[in-house]
Amino acid sequence: MPMYHTDDQAMLKDSASPFIAEAGPVAHLRSLRDSNDPTGFSRDLWKQFAEMGFTGILVPEDKGGLGLGHVEAGIVLEEIGRNLTPSPFLTTAVAAASALKAAGGAVADEWLPRIAAGDAVIALAIDESQRHRPERVALKAERSGNGFRLSGTKTFVLNGHVADMLLVAARTAGAAGEESGITLFAVPRDAAGLSADPRRLVDSSIASKLTLDGVEVTADAVVGEVDAGWSALKPLLAAARTGASAELLGVGQGAMDMTMTYLKQRKQFGRLIGEFQSLQHRAAHLYSEMEIARSCVMKAQQLLDEGNDGAELMVSVAKAKVGQTTNLAVREGVQMHGGIGMTDEYDIGLYMKRDRALAEFMGDVNYHTDRVARMNGY
Amino acid sequence: MSDNLESFRRETRAWLEANCPAEMREPLKSEDDTYWGGRKAEFKSPAQKAWFEACVAKGYTVPDWPKEYGGAGLSAAETKVLREEMARINARSPLSSFGIWMLGPALLHFGTEEQKRHYLNQIARGEIRWCQGYSEPGSGSDLVSLQTFGEDKGDHWVVNGQKIWTSYADKADWIFCLVRTDKSNKYQGITFMLFDMESAGVTTKPILLISGNSPFCETFFDNVKVPKDQYVGEINRGWDVAKYLLGHEREMISANGAGADMVSAGALYAKSLGLNAAGELDDPILRAEMAKFDVDVFAFRAMGERFMDMWKTGRAHPASSNMMKYAGTELNKRRFELVMSGSGSDGLEWESEESRQGASARAWLRTKANSIEGGTSEVMLNVVAKRILDLPGA
Known about the structure:
The complex is a heterodimer. By secondary structure, chain A is of the alpha+beta class. Chain A contains eleven helices and ten strands. Chain A folds into three domains: 114 residues, Acyl-CoA dehydrogenase/oxidase, N-terminal domain (Butyryl-Coa Dehydrogenase, subunit A, domain 1), CATH 1.10.540.10; 104 residues, Beta Barrel (Butyryl-CoA Dehydrogenase, subunit A, domain 2); 145 residues, Butyryl-CoA Dehydrogenase, subunit A, domain 3. The two termini of chain A are 31 Å apart. Chain B has a four-stranded mixed β-sheet. In chain B, strands 2-3-7-6 form a four-stranded antiparallel β-sheet, with no helix packed on it. The interface between A and B is large, with 45 and 46 residues.
């Protein structure tokens, strides 16, 4: 597969880019934030995403979707990132859809069409501590009648307070730290014993700390196989990490573009500041890093779409590399904007905040750098 | 189309299996395992000779050149398949040559039909070894200020001046050389000349580098006669050729990762440094440095692939090879810093047989030139700022 967009992919970009810039610009984020909106995103916009076909990108055609891949999902995610659009797209239409597709069965038949139609928001309940360590799942699921009884806590559950369903990783066997013995459950929002404690985050998104106090679910709630939830969790993690990388890439590109514009407008000492070589070299270095980050994100998407064994390595390379690079873009962005970059009124600071939140999501730079070392045997 | 490519891949695989000797699938043991061709060339082994001759017969020293010029006439996609299949078995390059990398592309673009048939076939068959006469003692990054002068004597020029950093000038048969032919016009007063290094008045003097090796020379021209038909492009328009070539050189440097080995650094040292009980490299800081480097290497490898895919189909920004050159060479320098850290005190050895005459230390020192030769990193950043980012006054 050549490493540029096909004509169809370019067309998708041509429709996604102006649509998201129009319907979900930075001003949209500001209005949700300033009105202290309790949901954290707009359900109207989510419905419009469905009308545009975005929510069905990763949903198979026989489940009402478009049956496309991670490259296409990445095109939408990059525009979401560039505009800082608050959206459950990454968790629902990318991560949850990938897990359900891999698991199949009744639970997939129920939820995939709803995702495609824009009728469902799904949250991911995986992390249990402030550092992403998915194999250390300890939340307990014990057999109870025909079903299971779930007890424990989860953290950093984006949109967990309003989701229609939560994908909960629980331990049915083995000990924390082992990949086997994990089971993935689809838990409905109104399940008795489930409570969400929502917290507004630095980027104005809302994530919950969840408590499951003896939540009863039926055997139908199992996503994939009991004790072998890792095989549904693995595609979920790969999709979420690759998707987060694509969204981060958009954040970095947006911050960089804004900064380049500023360098061509702002005058000091009687010159445009973009004339100063000290800034030019830093800008050119940033450009170089952004292009490299863009390449490994695309490679990860393509390998995932091909079902290539090399995908796992490239997914971590992408999350680590784009994590470093977008962080550089927002730091340079704020610094090069000078005093105005510190004001709430100016958008560059919002990019810095979103970078920080997305960087933590599904493993930060250090987590994925360590994973690259492990996958190379050291 | 992909069916055709798949069958081409199968044929290529079978051909390589039959024609690439086992010895030619082992990593180079030292710099002089590289075959450069030329009048004075000697093969180091029968395997090297057999591999070279098989490739020449098939047109695989220059696979994407047209058949009439000694190539195999492969498409970009087929060339990529060949490259992948050669990489898969670690096949060595059959012929290293500035003729292939630099002069060839310039001739393909600017040469006359007669020049192409004559020089390109010689290059493809490894008959003539070329060197490049660009830099001068006073003209490094500011190359266009070059002073070597060719005085017009009717049917020939008389060339006087000095070049520096001429790679392997002492081993080369011919030189492609930038010579000023009009002192009144800076950019449109340079001619891209071709001449024999055995011409009367040409002398070379190797420069001893910090690596202890002498891959570069000073080259002196003292009343060298160059026939008036030995130039590429137009008289006084050699700068166009030079610029084109510099772009190509950066593309080449970029495409193979600035000569960088695009594999995990940590995996290479896991064996010699040892792993602890947790299966991790014993030195946690070095492990972290290597892991960060590996992230950058794998990411840059993806960049190299994307760059080539875009470049070959006209999608790349014309100045993006400058970015590739910058990123690739800086990465390679980092690799060799890690190689030295990973090797510890053994890596310091300069002469011993175990160290292959200080191969690590010499290679480490050699990489410091990566970000200087062919345009410094700072010049690359200037070009990116000006031509890609369109920053003011750059």
